[in-house]
């Protein structure tokens, strides 16, 4: 879904961490506010877990992309200047393929929702995502053992797709030899 993951000084930055950085562009927030914003943004599609958000914020802080400050007994996080500059470069790179993709998916979503009443649209939008795109984001939220289980499942799904591709290739090769 996201192509090659960006890295900062040799450290991979996950999609959920990039999401956190984008949210922190709005201003300093404590961890629960970041989590709440993520949940609201991806409502019905992805449910970020508390136990994954705080360690991800700490990793971003260790890397120098964000900083924290304790205020009123809460730890507030904010982008560093370096983090803001790095994020801007990454978002500029992403926008080259995100804008056309977003427009395409918006068009297809409108087509899929034609004729549906608002309540039916809402129910449809809350159905679990079956593709692997959001699954990759969710993997950041899991323990290593759970991540391994899900990655094996994805590999099985991909293997099935490769089998179908191989069958189609054979069929087309056969057709081209006969024609």
Question: Your description of this structure?
Answer:
The protein has 179 residues and is mainly alpha-helical. The chain folds into two domains: 7-141, Orthogonal Bundle (Arc Repressor Mutant, subunit A); 142-179. The chain has helices at 15-24, 31-41, 50-62, 81-113, 118-125, 133-139, 144-178, and strands spanning 7-8, 11-12, 29-30, 66-71, 74-79. It has a three-stranded antiparallel β-sheet. Helix 1 (15-24) packs across helix 2 and helix 2 (31-41) crosses helix 3.
Summarize the structure.
The chain has 179 residues and is mainly alpha-helical. The chain has two domains: 7-141, Winged helix-like DNA-binding domain superfamily/Winged helix DNA-binding domain (Arc Repressor Mutant, subunit A, Orthogonal Bundle), CATH 1.10.10.10; 142-179. The chain has helices spanning 15-24, 31-41, 50-62, 81-113, 118-125, 133-139, 144-178; strands at 7-8, 11-12, 29-30, 66-71, 74-79.
Distance between the termini: 37 Å
CATH topology of the largest domain: Arc Repressor Mutant, subunit A
Number of strands: 5
Looking at CATH, the homologous superfamily of the largest domain is Winged helix-like DNA-binding domain superfamily/Winged helix DNA-binding domain
Poorly predicted runs of 5 or more residues: 128-133
**Which oligomeric state applies?**
single chain
- Shape summary: extended
> Strand order across the biggest sheet?
3-5-4
Over all CA atoms, what is the radius of gyration? 20 Å
**Strand residue content:** 5-15%
């Amino acid at each position: 879904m996201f192509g090659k993951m960006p890295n900062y000084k040799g450290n991979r930055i996950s999609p959920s961490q990039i999401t956190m950085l984008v949210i922190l562009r709005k201003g300093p927030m404590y961890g629960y506010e970041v989590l709440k914003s993520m949940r609201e943004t991806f409502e019905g599609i992805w449910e970020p877990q508390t136990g994954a958000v705080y360690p991800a914020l700490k990793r971003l802080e260790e890397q120098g992309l964000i900083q924290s400050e304790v205020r009123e007994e809460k730890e507030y996080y904010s982008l560093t200047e370096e983090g803001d500059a790095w994020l801007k470069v990454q978002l500029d790179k992403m926008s080259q393929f995100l804008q056309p993709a977003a427009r395409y998916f918006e068009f297809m979503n409108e087509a899929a929702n034609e004729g549906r009443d608002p309540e039916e649209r809402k129910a449809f939008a809350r159905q679990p995502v079956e593709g692997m795109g959001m699954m990759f984001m969710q993997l950041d939220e899991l323990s290593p053992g759970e991540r391994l289980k899900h990655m094996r499942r994805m590999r099985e799904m991909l293997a099935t797709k490769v089998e179908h591709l191989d069958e189609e290739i054979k069929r087309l090769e056969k057709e081209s030899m006969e024609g």
